[in-house]
Amino acid sequence: MRSTFSSIFYLKRQVVRKDGTVPVMGRITIDGTQTQFSCKMTIDPKIWDTKTGRAIGRSAVALETNRMLDKIRVKINSHYQEIFDRDNYVTAEKVKNAFLGLEHRQHTLMKVFEQYNEDYEKLVNAGMKSPKSLNKYQVVYKHLKEFLYQRYHVNDIALKELTPAFITDFDMFLRADKHCCNNTVWIYTCPLRTMVSIAINNEWLTRDPFRDYEIKKEETKRGFLSRDEIQLLLNGKLKNAKQELYRDMFLFCSFTFVALTNVCLIINKLQTNNRSIGNGLETTCLHHFA
What we know:
Layout (H helix, E strand, L loop, with lengths): L4 E7 L10 E9 L2 E11 L4 E2 L4 E2 L4 H28 L4 H8 L9 H17 L5 H22 L11 H13 L5 H20 L25 H9 L5 H16 L3 H13 L8 H9 L1
Antiparallel strand pairs: 1-2, 2-3, 4-5
GO molecular function: DNA binding
Keywords: DNA-binding, Membrane, Transmembrane, Transmembrane helix
InterPro entries: Arm-DNA-bind_5, DNA_brk_join_enz, Integrase_recombinase_N, SAM-like_dom
């Protein structure tokens, strides 16, 4: 929801300079909260219109004053829009600090997530992390980006704006919009917890938005193939080479007890080294084990 926002200019009449001029001040109001700042200019109060907050007349002083005030207003409006688009939460103090050049650039959720994924991918390429885990983080990043735009109409959000409501809303988004089951939601909230932990450890976030959130992994019974079904899968004809490769990978893991993750790592390494795979050797090995 967009904030109520206004900016006006007024005179600080109680402070009169030796030449009779008084300082011009600015006031920013957002959702009823105000903050003031100096416009770093003075003007003769006789040529000031209190109602419009501008200088009166066509004199060089009046025209220059109004030009400077217009420039300030444009900058304030620009800072307001930038902060709103970035953080989805704007205060008068934030806008004033941005205008005065005092704003501390806030760490945002998607920027931290993006950097984490980039670093994780380097570890995957070095053979130190699993491609499957990287894929999970990339999927959650994509879902979060879609959630932010759909729910808050923003592309990113400041870490300090994360609340328990944000977590429960994301949980609902995964269930209702992405049709995720409970265990998938449990898996997908783990990367978000990781980002929150990073933020807390770096003191970018003071309170844990997960503090009121609870989710438990449900025990599931996994099915298994019978000997006849495995034989049918082994001898069956599939539509294309890709399906055959997936079939061969599955059966290879079944016969050798090698984890699918390790098979993916091997294939990824072969592809990285520009070596061909799927040339029939996998099938030969499978029939040998059968």
